[in-house]
Amino acid sequence: MLDQPPLTNLQTRDVESLIHPYTPLHKLKSTGTLIMQRGEGVHVFDTQGRGYIEGMSGLWCAGLGFGDEEMIEAATEQLRTLPYYHIFSAKSIEPAIELAEKLKEIAPVPISKVFFTSSGSEANDTQVKLAWYMNNARGRPNKKKIISRIKAYHGVTVMSASLTGLPGNHNGWDLPVDRVLHTDCPHFYRFGAEGESEAEFTARMAKSLRELIEREGPDTIAAMIAEPVMGAGGVIVPPKGYFEAIQAVLDEHDIILISDEVITGFGRTGNWWGSQTLNMKPKTISTAKQLTSAYAPLGAVMVPEDIYQSYVDHSAQLGTFGHGFTYGGHPLGCALGVKAIEIYQKRDIIGHVRKLMPLFESRMKRLAEHPLVGEARYCGFVGGAELVADKKTRRPFDPKQGVGPQTAKLIENNGAVLRAIGDTIAICPPMIIREDELNELFDRFEKGLNEAEAWVSKEGLRTA
């Protein structure tokens, strides 16, 4: 492993003060932390003055990069005008109204109402509660199970972590809870059978879903939730025709499709929504992250009129709609959401993404030729390079060898922040990145991969 420099005083204070999410906590006292101090454009700078291209947009979210003056001005103006208010008990605020209207205008399917949360986890947690509420209102009290997928990521609340199909989100947490089902992961490279075509694989995925539904009973299943592109599961792009195939199964059994657009919304895939890119026809939508370009926490659930009317009907029966968050619809977040959408539109951010997508694709294809990379996956401006011990057989490394995290660290040492998802290195740059910056990001990615290949060979990890 890499030699670790002595911890600075600030790093020591950090380790002694914070619980770091998604971190091997037992290693922190020896490895320390990387403490960022400022950001500018697509670059971030640590407390030692070192600069990095932020190749993950933070956590898939800072689409407009760091330090955008229009966003800062919008935040400042809102804080001076009304720093906080709520939308409980028939109160409201202008930024929430305006943002809801903008979301309805750009939605990929007919949307009537928007419910605001503070995060994507809260949005997906809310999706489950709303599905239960809807079916209670419609006199279907047993139609409550939610289908997710193996390797899906939908958040970290008790329910959204249950929807997440990753062992690290379940082990040690007593999850998943009841009413959550997981169907197959649509990753052809890793789960396709020998001699099976992508079309045959897709048909098998639909067949497996149908069998799950029929085994459980369609009258017990409320919804299926799916990311257009599975992000934290390893940037998994489903085969062509996948969503059309599973949509037919869901429609046949009166099960709604929820699109988790927390990562894929607002231009990331070359369209406003990943649903459009992957030809999904969801009934409801969750979003967050690039909704404000991460300049403030905000999430949202978007629902059509017929579903909203079931909430109205049940509210009439019960006397109120008993759900909400203190910061749901926060004026700062909503004002920044309004400004972010305005910027995406007037600067034609989606057009910029589309212009650079061929370059992104060509550099990802070049990564696929690297001796350490088994598969390079991408969709729009998000990608993942899966590291393998044997390219021919697709044999993975032993997870205990830590090849992915070590590779991400070597890339970081070359001045680029990417993310290891197991042994997949994810890349998700700010959508404002210039052509020269994108090439430089991939150059640093490749330098880190070359160093990782040398380390793997030196340590004999392919035969370990």
Automatic annotation (TrEMBL):
Any one Gene Ontology molecular-function term assigned to this protein's record: adenosylmethionine-8-amino-7-oxononanoate transaminase activity
Sorted UniProt keywords: Aminotransferase, Pyridoxal phosphate, Transferase
Pfam families per the UniProt record, alphabetical: Aminotran_3
Statement: the UniProt record of this protein carries the keyword Transferase: yes
Keyword match RNA-binding: no
GO biological process, any: biotin biosynthetic process
PANTHER family assigned to the protein according to its UniProt record, in alphabetical order: ADENOSYLMETHIONINE-8-AMINO-7-OXONONANOATE AMINOTRANSFERASE (PTHR42684:SF3)
Similarity-based family: Belongs to the class-III pyridoxal-phosphate-dependent aminotransferase family.
Name of the protein in its database record: Aminotransferase class III-fold pyridoxal phosphate-dependent enzyme
Organism encoding this protein: Borborobacter arsenicus
